[in-house]
Amino acid sequence: MSFQAYLDTVETKTGLTPRQLIDLAGEKGFGTGTKAGPILDWLKTDYDLGRGHGMAIVHVITKGAKIDAKHVGSGGTHSDASDELWLDGKATNPLSS
């Protein structure tokens, strides 16, 4: 599953785009310097997200939308179309097929 697919699945499960979750995390005081544990606890408690999907959200909360380019276009299981994740909802993603 690509990184973007993880974010899209989180949106399906929670009804919230990644950007909305980032905003909610900010309201809770989570951001760049926050460790994964407290964010994962919040996501599990409020949205019943497991660790894998939670870690995708942890990444965008703490590191932003940029990912390592090594998976871009690799054709592998974790291949993404871009090194920039789309955070504004899967329905509006210009790279979706």
TrEMBL record:
Region described as Disordered: 70-97
Annotated InterPro entries: DUF4287 (IPR025629)
Annotated protein name in UniProt: DUF4287 domain-containing protein
Organism expressing this protein natively: Microbacterium pseudoresistens
